[in-house]
Amino acid sequence: MDGSATTRVDYGSEEAAMQAYLRDGEKRAASLGNRGPIRFTAAGELHPDILDAYWRCGFYVFEGVLKPDELADIERDVHDILDRLPVERGAPVDAKGRPALAADCKAPSLLWSKPLGDPFGGTDLANGRHPVKMYEPTAAADAPKEVVYLILGSLQFSEAVLRVYGHPGLLAVAAAINGPDFTPFNEALFIKEPGRGASVAWHQDGVTHWNSADWDQGSHGFNFMGQLYGCTAANGVWVVPGSHKRGKADIKKMVAEAGSERLSDAVPIIAAPGDVAITNRQALHGSFANTSKDWRVTLNMGFHRRRSVLGVKGGGVHNKEAVYDAARIRERARLIGYGIDARRQRFPGEKPYVYKPHADEGLAYRWDENARADIKDYNLLDLSI
Q1: SS3 of 379, please?
Q2: Structural domains in the chain (count)
Q3: Does the pLDDT value for residue 232 go beyond 60?
Q4: Residue 2 lies in a domain
Q5: Which end of the chain is more exposed for a tag (fewer CB within 10 A), N or C?
Q6: Total-model pTM
């Protein structure tokens, strides 16, 4: 990737402590036993060792999911996306004077931050679920005023990303975790530029089900995190293993006891290009400002149990509050159908996934120019719980 910061930045007075923390975290992560290729049993079930490790840790790293040709497709699209970003927040054009990416979208699309900032920590944004602000290193003098660090509704901006959304192995994992009638949540691209990428303060994603009588360790679904360039302790997401099954965490207390936002029991998600992590949305997680020399581009794709969504009043974080009925779930899930067909066209030798709700209703989706127009602003219908 080009256009990244060349001036070295670091954590200033916290640099030595931060580097020691990164090294220790890598060692803890290596001992968890929660990584490997997607594997199925002879009966076609997700291998029980994977399920056991996922439910024990709250995350798992699937290795080698996206092959070099698919990564090249994604990289081309990401270059195009970055090239089309507005010259500044709210600008209608990109640096070449063309209509900017998402300039005509009604749905929220681009999230901005000052370089190396923490735009959510310690604020009431997103229902106040990021209660502690992360340390904000000083950016280089030549850094821009703001950078885009998150792109929502990403399937409409990249056909390559849409094809990943239809990946048969990943969708089979979604069915194993959330049941064959699983539903979408939302999708996004996380952009962590070297020397500029923002932090995401410690938080748990779930909102609606914490006090439900039937709450359990999977009530709020999960996110897949596909890695274009891989991720390191310095630029990747950190997770507190097992926190997904302990209910709501007292984040302020945990940070106070640790003496800083460097939580002692957290571990980084370490991944190579093409790896895809799965992370429980109830797990306590966050990421630090990216002072490293490495890019992180993550394809986030979330899925829910249908019973966690149907008839539930959700929203308020990713879109407006609403009660999610069967019609809304069906309309939002058309993206799964489009993703499956887009992938079939690009990889004709691969057996497409059969999404049970579509098969049961006799629904078929064709990825073409009409479909491309149909998915504009699709994320207005995200299923946020």
Answers
A1: helix
A2: 1
A3: yes
A4: no
A5: N
A6: 0.94
